[in-house]
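step: validate -> pass
step: tokenize input -> pass
step: predict -> running
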Amino acid sequence: MIDERAKEQALFWRQFKLLISSGVPVVRALSTATESIVDEQLKQSIEKIKSEIESGSSLADAMRSHGDLFSEIAVTLVAIGEEAGTLEFQAQQIANELEGGLIPVGGAKPVEVIVVSEKVEPGERSKVKEYVDNMILDAISQGASDIHIEPFSQSLMIRYRVDGVLREVEEPQEDIQLAIVDRIKMIAGMDVAQKRFPQDGKIRRTIESMGNKEIDMRVSCVPAQWGEAITIRILDVLSMSAWLNISDLGFSPADLELFESSIRKPHGIIIVSGPTGSGKSTVLYAALARLRSTELKMLTVEDPVEYGIKGSTQITVNPEIGLTFPVGIRNILRQDPDIVMVSEIRDYETAEMIIHTALTGHLVLTTLHTNDAPSAVTRLIDMGVEPFLIASSLILVSAQRLVRKLCPNCKELIELSDATLELLTQNNVDISDKSKLTLFKAVGCPECRQTGMRGRIGIFELMPIDDDIRECMGRGITSRKIREVARQKGMRSMREDGMQKVASGITTIDEVMRVTAGSS
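step: predict -> pass
step: emit ->
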């Protein structure tokens, strides 16, 4: 049976976790978390720990000198949390294990602080640490957005998603394969012992060898047939900063003018739609960066906050404590915002709150998972939103995909065949002056790792909401009919936008057809 000291410590760690999750500094969180604690010995130790931290010690190192109160496991978890930027996750785990009687009170000894930063020399650390360190650095150097680690009966497959396409890399040595997943779970702040239930975690890094590049990683772990599968989403803060110029995202001059005029309206809803990984968040962040002004107050509700936008108050939803999207939106309206960004419409309640926000005089930027722009309207109706409310609040829907760009170092000019000219004509590309058409093919070189492609750019489909489309909404007709009306009004499809980029020598016909398969 759990004793009173363990209960007190569990309460302390739980309160500490809530405080640091809310952005409270560690020293202040330690003070506040002890206010409701009865155990005088614990209070006195925390006061000494605070002094040691203020003198330059880490929390884990300060805890080591109080081994009569903190267990070796607790100190190790805190050390991992401080190094990986996951202290709140580790505090929660300590509280859970204290309450479950899984770790003792007291017994700490000096332990190794886990550090993963630069490439390690063989022999300096274990092969597992070396492999995970170098895998992360290799993926970042290739510009990967994700790392996929998938176990099979006789192997462990490692793949990087680069420019939207998965590339398999060399399989790790058999003797370390089982330990790789545990290592990643540990530095991501997950429960290493839990192998039958999905978990999420995060890793934060500053890579000195890459010019102090700041990297955030979101880690997902799920149980599979042959073990646990890990996916690491890599968020490059510095690279994202370079992408925050909305003019560089791939909008045509006409679409850019339409998008910019829409985001500068005083109220209404702008929806950016597309599948996962199509760059929706990048467009929203770029829009906020373009709108940034000391005269406007911008607030966001996200899951999670991926990148910090100067001048914006950003909130991460936390369903564990009841901070859902609707609750977040309801409360930020009391903060007197001019512009609100909600990272995703997931359900009717969120959609209802977004519409209420727009109708009360705010500009709302958000995303929705649909295949094209007209489908965003019918998706909201399917959620249960009244069509007249959509018609009175929605001002623009922008659907998008990402296509790979030709490597400028090795692309080769191709001759224009009759079939190519016919395809371009079908997609409304002006071929009257063939001297202005510069089509290339992918070749491959060391710069692009023999793929012929390097980097990605957006292709877009913008549907402004005018009176004719509002009338369609009010009559509750299908997305196909809404599309017909929008096309008559001059809306260009994503495929047409992509073919224009083909004619400009940016990408290839095969790439545009691959990305727009199933779209018109």
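step: describe -> Confidence is low (pLDDT under 50) at residues 108-125.
step: cleanup -> pass
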